[in-house]
Amino acid sequence: MKLTIITACMVMLLGGCMAENAAYQSPQKVKPFTEEDFDKLYSEKALGMNVEDGKMTFRVFAPRATQVKILFFKKYSDETPYETLYMIRDDQGVWEYVSPAKRWGDYYGYQVSGPEGPGEMFDDSLVIADPYSIAVSTKNHFTHEGKSIILKDDYHWGRDTWIVPEDPRDLIIYEAHLRDLTAHPSSGASKPGTYRGAVEKGITGGLEYIKSLGVNAVEFLPLMDFGNIEIPYKDSVERKYNTWNPYERNHWGYMTSYFFAPESYYATNPSLKEGGYSGHDGRQVLEMKDMVKAFHDEGIAVLMDVVYNHVSEYDYNPLKYIDKKYYFRLDEKGDFISVSGCGNDYATERPMARRLIIDSVIFWMKKYHIDGFRFDLAAMIDEETCAMILEEARKVNSHVVIIAEPWGGGYKPDRFSELGWAAWNDQFRNGVKGQNPDNRPGFIFGRWDDGVNRDNVFRFLTGTLVNDGGLFQTSAHSVNYLASHDDYTLGDFIRLFLNWTPQNKSVDEYHLVKGDMLALNRLAAFTLATSQGIMMVHSGQEFARSKVIAPSGVENSHVGHIDHNSYEKDNETNYINYDIMAKNKELVSYYTDLIKLRKRIPELRRADRKYLKRKYSDNVQFGIGYDINDPASEKRYLILLNGDPVKHAMYKLPDGTWDVRANELKAGLDAPVHKGIVGQIVLDPRGAVLLEQIKDK
Description:
Layout: H1 2-21, E1 48-52, E2 55-61, E3 67-73, E4 83-86, E5 88-89, E6 94-99, E7 107-113, E8 136-139, E9 146-149, E10 172-176, H2 178-182, H3 195-198, H4 207-213, E11 217-220, E12 236-237, E13 240-241, E14 277-278, H5 283-297, E15 301-306, H6 318-327, H7 351-368, E16 372-375, H8 383-396, E17 401-404, H9 413-419, E18 422-425, H10 426-432, E19 434-436, E20 440-441, H11 454-461, E21 478-480, H12 490-497, H13 507-511, H14 515-529, E22 534-538, H15 578-583, H16 585-600, H17 603-606, E23 612-616, E24 623-628, E25 635-642, E26 649-652, E27 658-663, E28 674-677, E29 680-683, E30 688-694
Parallel strand pairs: 10-11, 10-22, 11-15, 15-16, 16-17, 17-18, 18-21, 21-22
Antiparallel strand pairs: 1-2, 2-6, 3-4, 3-7, 5-6, 7-9, 8-9, 8-14, 12-13, 19-20, 23-24, 24-25, 25-30, 26-29, 27-28, 27-30
């Protein structure tokens, strides 16, 4: 009897579902909107999959589509859907399906039909994932074929919230690639290269190590789902012949596929085995949230490097197949414009394309508690969108960190500062370290890069401010750094300047930091740690990390050489080797102490410009520094540097007695390094000093 009742109920339920689905059973072909309509179309309806009034609602914006089908699958690997329905379009180009049935754990995708003709990419035989997917199962292939996972979002954050400081100049950022943090065996991680491995307790690498450095923010290279796999080497796809990437990988992640889904290769079942699948159970969502929470528990903010200027080049990115003409910048022939150098520049100025960016930023803030963002090639994002990003993000968290990589189709750090954004300060990098070790080294080498002189370096040390002829309205907008994932590491830049290469040193000798190598690394660290603005350290910089190209079993004639662009190497070229860190513990300790000192002395990072005065050596042109004398402070500070490799630098000191809080050898945390300096001080070649004076009351 009970079985009969249950069966009857199921029949009634299914009958109701079928009745409610009747409107979606027949094709809904419509006249597409035209390009003249693009700037008029806008919808505030929730896109992607959302539960509304107890029903699952699926929406996608596809203005020039003539028909959109939604397909449901029971397994991520199924080629045949268990149900196919026709979506209905509204008057703003949004297609919708409302499901009376709950489909948790299922998979879905779209098939989009549209106008045919030159340059069009509509393909109604192709199943594409939802661009608003919160989790995606992807096939291990350069096409990155994906299905959206219908996943419950019921994560419990407890009391966790954003932890960024009120003043961004209090940030000390550690830029890192998530997989590289624990992929090397020396990290000790039981789940190497994953979200879980990054926060595993009791190991050498990952969060435990980052915490020991004293930094208070980590900036991860892209964590959004991206196209990991590039086209086959020495093969042609879409008129492009791969002669440049024998690894067939995009390791760094700057090829975004889905703007709302975390990268599944970093989950605890990582595999890019050919023909396999990644992320099919959605565990990447839980594990990334756990990772963010673990960093927050240690007082470390989590920033994401985000790529909104282009999408992955070869994959089945849904935006290409939903409406190429709407979502991308095209030339008169209808081909993708590639100012980004990546094949498909995103049309950030379109109203619904702009909305996608802002929705994505807010999503990561609310759903993942992300504290801030670094925008890749941000100069490619139109200014109206940039202004709205900051405005909307601050509504969620008034202290959100918004940082531009201020180039890409222009060089605009000054304009970003006017908009209220911070930006990477490449002028600081090039002036202090230099742009090229062969012919454009900078101040720490006793050289001037093009157009740089003592006045420029003083400007860099004090925030590169507009009023001094610089870039920024405030030093809070200057992200000072000496190296990043791009180009040579700081350690390799110095090695190359010194002609200290893998070819003229043994393996151990090459990695060991000593002599001139140590002196230059220390001077660079001291200069960075005593400059006004936000401080950023590239992962491994604190032990002079090298990116020597590692043997990997692929065709490569450059093994043993130093790499300046290792974007494609998922191997020991990029992995953080903690054995080498241990060998260079002296430099690590120096960085750690400088970081502690910077945190203890606010004047080193956010002094008022009107209380800063330049100090030049009397006898050496590379003797540069500045005086911090705030009347409201009980202490006065002098930062003095000597970039000359052979000459001593003499400085006359202001009246009174001065103590040395730090120099190029040591930072005095609990007591001064030296006391009672009066009249003048002489710095050794490649020397530096932080002097402190307690004012008379």
